[in-house]
C-alpha cells in the first residue's frame, strides 16, 4: 500500500493539499518569532512545541522511507525539519540562560538519544513489514504529542485570559491541516496517518474557540493600560504645576523675557530711559512747590 498514488487522483490531491497546508502551519509561528526578534527576548514563549514537532518530523521521514513510495510524506516533513530547526535556533539565541539550558536538554534527549534508540531498536529487532507497523505506531504516539504540546498554551490562555501567546493563524492552520491529512489517511486506509489528526482537529477547534472568547480581553487590557498611562501623565503635569507654585522664585521663571530683563536691569542699578524721564520729572518743582510772591516787584 503506497502513500503516493498517481492512479488515485483523490489521494494525490489530498496529499498535495496536505503538503501545502502543512507548510503554512510551519510558517504560522513566524509572527511569534518576529516578536521575539524585536523584543530581543523569548518572553513567556515555550520551545517545547518546536522541539517535539522537529522530533515528529524526523520520525515521519523514517516511516516514509520504510513505507516506500511515500514521497509526499518525505517532502512535507523535510520542509518541517528545516523550519523547526530555524525556530529552535532563534529561540536559543534570544532565550535566557535557564530557558536555553532546558531547551538543550529536551532537544538532546528527543532528537538525539531517543531517536537513536528508536532507529537502532527497530532496525535490530524488527524486519520488513513488522518494522513498518512498529515505526508507524510510534509516529502516531508522537504525532499526538505534537498536537498535545499546545495544551500548555491552552491552559495559559484560560489562566491569563489572554490570547497574546496563541496566534489565531496557527490554530486555524492546525485545524485545516488535521482535516486534510485525516482525509488523506482515510482514503489510503492508513490508520497511522488518519488517527493522530482526529485529536489535531479537536485541539485546533478548541484553540479557535478560546481565541474567540478571550480576544476581547486583550483589547480591554490595552484600553486600561492606555487609560492608566494617561492618568500618570496627568498626575505628572499636576505635580509639575505644584512644584512651580511652591518653589520660591519659580513663578518668576514663567514671566515674559522683557519683564525678566527689566527686573534684572533694575537690580543691577541700570536705569532705562523711562526711569531717567521719571527722575527728571520728580526733580522739577511742581506748582504747589512754588511759593507765591507777595509784594514782589514794584
Automatic annotation (TrEMBL):
Which cellular components does GO assign to this protein? plasma membrane
GO MF annotation list: sugar transmembrane transporter activity
Gene3D superfamilies tied to this protein:
1.20.1280.290
Give the highest taxon in the source lineage.
Eukaryota
In this chain, composition skew of type Basic and acidic residues spans: 275-298
Check the UniProt entry and state the signal peptide residues, or none. none
Where does the protein end up? Cell membrane
InterPro entries in alphabetical order: SWEET (IPR047664), SWEET_rpt (IPR004316)
Q: Where is this region: Disordered?
A: 257-298
Instruction: Name the UniProt key words of this record, in alphabetical order.
Output: Cell membrane, Membrane, Repeat, Sugar transport, Transmembrane, Transmembrane helix, Transport
A Pfam family this protein belongs to? Answer: MtN3_slv
Function of the protein:
Mediates both low-affinity uptake and efflux of sugar across the membrane.
Q: What is this protein called?
A: Bidirectional sugar transporter SWEET
Q: Which organism's genome codes for this protein?
A: Heracleum sosnowskyi
Amino acid at each position: 500500500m503506497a502513500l503516493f498514488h498517481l492512479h488515485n487522483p483523490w489521494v494525490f490531491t489530498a496529499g498535495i493539499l496536505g503538503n501545502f497546508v502543512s507548510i503554512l502551519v510551519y510558517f504560522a509561528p513566524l509572527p511569534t518569532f518576529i516578536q521575539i526578534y524585536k523584543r530581543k527576548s523569548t518572553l513567556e514563549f515555550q520551545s517545547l512545541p518546536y522541539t517535539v514537532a522537529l522530533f515528529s518530523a524526523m520520525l515521519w521521514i523514517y516511516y516514509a522511507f520504510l513505507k516506500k513510495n511515500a514521497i509526499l510524506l518525505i517532502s512535507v516533513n523535510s520542509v518541517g525539519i528545516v523550519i523547526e530547526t530555524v525556530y529552535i535556533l532563534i529561540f536559543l539565541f534570544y532565550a535566557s540562560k535557564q530557558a536555553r539550558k532546558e531547551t538543550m536538554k529536551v532537544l538532546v534527549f528527543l532528537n538525539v538519544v531517543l531517536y537513536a534508540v528508536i532507529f537502532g531498536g527497530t532496525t535490530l529487532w524488527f524486519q520488513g513489514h513488522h518494522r513498518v507497523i512498529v515505526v508507524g505506531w510510534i509516529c502516531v504516539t508522537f504525532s499526538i504529542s505534537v498536537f498535545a504540546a499546545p495544551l500548555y498554551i491552552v491552559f495559559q490562555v484560560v489562566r491569563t485570559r489572554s490570547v497574546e501567546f496563541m496566534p489565531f493563524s496557527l490554530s486555524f492552520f492546525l485545524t485545516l491541516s488535521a482535516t486534510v491529512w485525516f482525509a488523506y489517511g482515510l482514503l489510503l486506509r492508513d490508520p497511522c496517518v488518519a488517527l493522530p489528526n482526529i485529536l489535531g482537529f479537536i485541539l485546533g477547534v478548541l484553540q479557535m474557540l478560546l481565541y474567540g472568547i478571550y480576544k476581547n480581553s486583550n483589547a480591554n487590557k490595552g484600553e486600561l493600560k492606555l487609560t492608566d498611562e494617561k492618568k500618570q501623565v496627568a498626575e505628572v503635569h499636576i505635580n509639575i504645576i505644584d512644584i512651580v507654585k511652591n518653589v520660591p522664585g519659580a513663578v518668576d521663571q514663567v514671566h515674559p523675557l522683557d519683564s525678566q530683563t527689566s527686573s534684572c536691569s533694575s537690580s543691577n542699578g541700570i536705569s532705562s530711559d523711562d526711569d531717567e524721564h521719571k527722575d527728571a520729572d520728580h526733580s522739577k518743582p511742581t506748582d504747589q512747590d512754588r511759593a507765591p510772591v507777595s509784594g514782589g516787584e514794584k
